[in-house]
Amino acid sequence: MKSTYAVRIVLSVMASVLYTTLATASPLTYTDRATFDAATSGLSGMNTLDFDSLPVGPLGAGPFQGISFAFSIGGGFVANVVDFYDTTSGANALGTNGDSTFLAGDSFTMSFTNPTEAVGLYVIASDILFPGDFVLTEPGGSVGNAGSPSFTLPDTGKVFFLGLYDPGQPFSTATLTSNASADFLFNVDDIRGQIDAAGQSPVPEPSSLILLGTGLLGAARRYRHRLAK
Predict the structure, then answer these.
(1) Could you give the domains of the chain?
(2) For 7-57, how does the pLDDT look when each residue is reduced to its tens digit (9 = 90+)?
C-alpha cells in the first residue's frame, strides 16, 4: 500500500511539472507557409482572410471574419483594402491610402472574436529586408521574418511568411510590428487562423468623402514616397 501511495505521489508531481511546462512553453514559430499549414492541419476552423471579399477602400476596425484591427500608422494615413500591387492571392491586400502601402514603423494589432491557437500572414515588401524587420507576436511568444523571401512576385515584391502555433493555448490577440529605424514599404495579405469563413464588408463612406479621398490620393502617394527615401 505504501509503495502504491508513493508511486501515485511521484506520478502526480510529474504530471504537475509536465502541465506547467506545457502551459508556459513558447509557441512554435514558422517562416514557411507550407510547414505552418502542415503543423496546423488538424486544427478545426482554420480559414484565411485574403481581403478579396472586401471592397477596395478604407478598412475600418472590423470585425472581418472575426478579426478586429487597431492600427498604428504614420503620416496621417489610414488602413485600406488595396489592389495596386501584386499579392499572394487574388487582387486585394492590406495597405493604406498612402501609395497603397504601409511604411517601416507601422504596426497593427488583431483581436480575435474567438481565440485561436494559430495565426500566420504574408508580408510583401518592396525593398531589401533584414531578419527581424517584421515581428509577429502573441502573448506566448513571437517570430521574426527570415533573411530571404519565400518567393518573389512578378512586380518584384518580396514575400515573407510569419506564423505562430501555440498548441492547446488559444490566444485572443496578435500584433505585427515593423522596424521603425529601417526604410521600406510593405503590404499584408492572407491572414490565416481559426477565424470565420465568411467576410464582412465595411460600411461604405459617404460619396463626398470618397470624392475627397480620390482627389487627395495622388498627393498622398507622392508624400509617402518622399518619406520612404
Answers:
(1) 24-228 (2.60.120.1360)
(2) 344 334 344 433 444 445 899 999 999 999 999 999 999 999 999 999 999
Residue 67 contacts residue 173 (beta carbons within 8 Å): no
pTM: 0.78
**Residue 198 pLDDT level (bands cut at 50, 70, 90):** confident
Q: DSSP assignment of the chain, as one string?
A: -HHHHHHHHHHHHHHHHHHHHHHHPPPEEES-HHHHHHHTTTSTTEEEE-STTS-SEE--S--BTTEEEEEE-GGG--EEEE-SS--SSSS-EEEESSTTSEETT-EEEEEEEEEESEEEEEEEESS---TTSEEEEETTEEEE--SS-SEE-TT-PEEEEEEEE-TT--EEEEEEEE-TTS--EEEEEEEEEE--SS--PPPPPPHHHHHHHHHHHHHHHHHHHHHH-
CA proximity to 95, closest of 83, 105, 86, 104? 83
| Cell 464582412 sits on residue | 200
Tell me the C-alpha distance between 109 and 141, whole Å: 15
Residue 216 pLDDT > 70, yes or no? no
**What is the tens place of the pLDDT at every residue in 199-212?**
554 444 443 344 34
Distance between CA atoms of residues 175 and 142, nearest Å: 9
